[in-house]
Design goal:
binds 5-O-phosphono-beta-D-ribofuranose; 5-stranded parallel beta sheet; 5 strands; alpha/beta; 49% helix
Amino acid sequence: MKKVGIVMGSDSDLPILEKSIDILKSFGIPYEVHVYSAHRTPKEAIDFAAAAEENGFGVLIAAAGMAAHLAGVIAANTTLPVIGIPCKSQCFDGMDALLSTVQMPSGIPVATVAVNGGANAALLAAEILAVSDPSISEKLKAKRAADTRTVLEKNAAVSQKFTN
Ligand code: RP5
């Protein structure tokens, strides 16, 4: 099975990536986790991206805050699909990282999820791998069904309590 590569600009982003890690773990999808910054360690970030395909990765997740160039730099150095997570920092409620991550020029796509969207990044990574791996597809379908049941149970409880 192809691996998912998780890269974050700083270990201060880790709480957001833990949501991704939990989901990949629950699906039995192999992953690697790294701290490489587009600004502080640009060579390492580029080298990781450039070697990712031959190192067995199928999709990469890149998370960064502030002037969040990491996902774009990773995407510029591989043709593997790259999922960007804009991380909220102290200023601007994450809008800075959102625009830096999502507004990629034509030719270098980054599939950007919501600000702090660690869970959806992992689910999207799983969906990408599931295209060529039916076992992951089955797990995604089972999770959808379980999530649906959970919401319907909540509906029943809220409806019963508050309907007059
Ligand atoms: C970004 O700057 C990182 O991705 C992080 O979100 C933000 C702040 O980094 P630290 O100063 O906490 O290391 O590059």
